[in-house]
Design brief:
By secondary structure, the chain is α+β, with helices and mostly antiparallel strands. It has helices at 5-19, 25-32, 47-53, 58-64, 67-81, 87-96, 103-110, 113-122, 129-138, 147-154, 179-189, 205-215, 230-238; strands spanning 160-167, 170-176, 195-202, 220-222, 225-226. The protein folds into two domains: 5-153, no CATH class; 160-238.
Length: 243
């Protein structure tokens, strides 16, 4: 049964009485087993609102903030603005919302601008903020080891597959961007069953397909079908590099 709003508020008050201050979100979850998803978007949009409803002042709420709380507040502000907040945005938000982390709390928990953006990115998989954060990180001075991942996430290489399947005694080598769909399509055209053999994921399916078609050209039967032996199949399955 879902935990109620009133139960969460009462747990907050009990923990605050025991610990001498209102609990941060992470310590609250660890002590009660009540997770972020039990209240976020159902009763409140940020932990500070829950603390306020439990009767704690802005100063008390900010003292209890943990890194997760600050990241959540930062991500919520990105969603609200539709862009990465400037230093001025952070200060203005604090003036209009006592529950928002102070500039000092943001720096304490999230560090400098790169560290702040990176912490937010790690907590925003597949969210609307993800690309905004990636683009912001990409504009910062290069940092060894960090930029390759950002570039790949911003502009991932398109990939496809070169596959080998068998029907009867013959093998087909082709390319596709969806293995399951292509095998289904081929299977509809065949009287005999279709057996998947192996697939190669690559950013150059046309080039890799051409390599194998050329390598086995002497054994081509019709179209993309080949009369291969066990050695040929093993080569297709084990070949790792292409020149």
């Amino acid at each position: 049964m879902a935990v109620t709003r009133e139960e969460i508020v009462e747990f907050i008050r009990q923990l605050a009485k025991t610990e001498g201050k209102p609990p941060g979100r992470r310590s609250f979850e660890q002590r009660t087993g009540i997770s972020y998803t039990d209240w976020f978007g159902r009763y409140w949009t940020k932990w500070g609102d829950a603390l306020q409803e439990a009767g704690f002042s802005a100063n008390e709420r900010n003292e209890s903030l943990e890194k997760e709380d600050v990241v959540d507040a930062y991500l919520n502000l990105i969603a609200e603005l539709g862009r990465i907040p400037t230093e001025g945005d952070l200060r203005m938000k604090k003036r209009s919302d006592d529950g928002f982390p102070s500039h000092g709390a943001i720096r304490k928990h999230l560090g400098n601008r790169r560290e702040r953006l990176t912490a937010a990115l790690e907590n925003s998989p597949n969210s609307a903020a993800e690309r905004l954060l990636l683009e912001a990180i990409a504009t910062l001075p290069p940092e060894k080891g960090a930029d390759a991942e950002v570039i790949e996430r911003l502009d991932p290489l398109p990939t496809g597959y070169v596959y080998m399947v068998k029907s009867g005694k013959y093998y087909k080598i082709g390319k596709t961007n969806s293995i399951d769909r292509r095998q289904y399509e081929i299977g509809l055209q065949l009287a005999e069953g279709l057996k998947p053999i192996h697939s190669i994921e690559t950013d150059d399916p046309s080039g890799i397909e051409a390599y194998w078609h050329n390598r086995f050209k002497e054994k081509r039967m019709n179209g993309e079908w080949f009369n291969l032996d066990a050695r040929d199949v093993r080569a297709f399955r084990l070949r790792k590099k292409f020149m």
